[in-house]
Predict the 3D structure of the following.
Amino acid sequence: MTIAIRDSGAPLGHEISGVDLTRPLDDSTFAGIEKAFNNCGVVVIRDQNLTPAQQVAFTRRFGEVERYPVGSFGLPGQDEILVVSNIIEEGKPIGLIDAGRNWHSDMLFTQRPPRCSLLYCLEVPHQDDKIFGDTLFASTAAAYDGLPAGMKQRLAGLKAFHSFRAYASTKTDGREKEGEAFPDVIHPLVRTHPITGRQCLYLSHSLTRRIGDLGETETAALVRQLIDHITSEPYVYRHHWRVGDLVIWDNCSSMHRAMFDYALPQRRRMHRTTVMGTQPF
Ligand code: SIN
């Protein structure tokens, strides 16, 4: 296969064409995909027609597949796939409804957060021609590069303390205890990308409780300031989903957020796979 890459105009979200992931993928084509992915942090492959097994097989090319550790929305028969959906069947949700409501990087609350996630689109919420449920992606690498030198100096060497337990305990929907299995973690606030060596901002509005020796209010102010910077226009790509899209994002060099601008009977159904990563440094 011969791939082509179309620049999205943003630092991330470039589109790769010339790939049919239902067919065997030779090493050099995969190397081209992986290179584009490493360089840009989010890549889009459109017009795929993947079975769950094909998605898992392609995901394995990036590394060991990891099951989502929270809740029980693995796809029956192929539980490496997390179902992300607002659909209710027989009175029960078929998937995780609120994945990604706030800006985040997947599973930052774990010791070894995933290298990347792959989201495959099966149903897109729409009304007439209007599509809803976009996902926004922001480059934490380009945003770091764009910080003033004084801010880079201020952030150098700082550690950030993240608590999924504390975040989950504020929920009021019966999921208050789902954070209890996850010990609090400390990661560098600026982490080095393990492949490209780029510096990436690494934090979360919901999970980051303390940065360095700053107090609660100062930490919250710095988190807000950095996330406002990362998610400002020059660093963001907005993905308008089409059925058959596969979007792959790097959980070190990007953050993302799903738009919740739709409701049933508008249905959204996605299959997510996740690849194990390494301890941030
Ligand atoms: C996610 O954060 O894993 C899901 C993002 C989305 O549903 O668009």
